[in-house]
Amino acid sequence: MSAPPGEDLVNQWESEQARLRLQVVEEDTEDWQRSPDFSGLERVGGVDLSFIKGDEVNACAQLVVLSYPDLEVLYEDSRMVTLTAPYIAGFLAFRETPFLLEALQRLERNQPKLRPQVVFVDGNGVFHYREFGLACHLGVLSGLPCVGVAKNLLQVQGVHKNEQHQSQIAALQKGGDSFPLTAASGKVLGKALRSSDRSCKPVYVSVGHKISVTTAVRLTHSCCRYRVPEPIRQVAKDATKALKTSKYRRPLKICHLWECA
User: What are the protein's UniProt keywords (predicted)?
Assistant: First the structure.
């Protein structure tokens, strides 16, 4: 069992988050974002870092790029990596971002024409303890528009999975319906989105970087064939295949770091 992280490291990471948080842009910056049908958007990316439950060191860093609006896979990058940073709740980005950023940089070097115009991140953006989750961290460091999409509700800043929240979910009648995730301060940190008519369970969408929450929700819905947006769904499928065939395989459940923590 690894030793608990020191207070100095937590303070260092909090300071770094606060510094980078100032660079987050929570509004639309690209022409395609302002188009009703996202005209000009041709490539959407998805990233995730997955591991085999019970193994805190070896993980699979994944990047996929899909065409838009057809959502066909154009590019896949799958690498087994060794994690060095400890897991601390609220600081997942320091554990994952370096490997996801490396995947984007490899794509930029090897096939720059396939560089995604927006990246979906399996996790949260400004819907976070300090309004700087993984999608924000990756967005600021990569300079790319990023959207955070989480499958589970992070109970933070006055947002709780209570009766009111459940009744709001029940009121979502069709794919595309959403309601705001409002902090105790009154700020909207993201939205719960019913992403598909097929599923009544919402996903939780928040701004990562260089996109507004309204556009992020609209884009997420447009990329959903099922509950989870296709860039994230495809990256999860690829990760499962890679982990099952890697030398690190073992008969344990494959899961995402942010879900299993």
Answer: Cytoplasm, DNA-binding, Endonuclease, Hydrolase, Magnesium, Metal-binding, Nuclease, Nucleus, RNA-binding
> Which residue ranges make up each domain of the chain?
17-260
The Cα-based distances of 111 to 45, 75, 104, 241 in angstroms read 14, 9, 10, 23
Rounded to an integer, the average pLDDT of 143-162 is 96
* CATH hierarchy code of domain 17-260: 3.30.2170.10
Question: Encoding tokens for residue 154?
Answer: 């992070």
Distance separating alpha carbons of residues 259 and 218, to the nearest angstrom: 24
CA angle, residues 207, 130, 167, in degrees to nearest 5: 65
In whole angstroms, how far apart are CA 201 and each of 75, 102, 157?
29, 33, 22
pTM over 0.85: yes
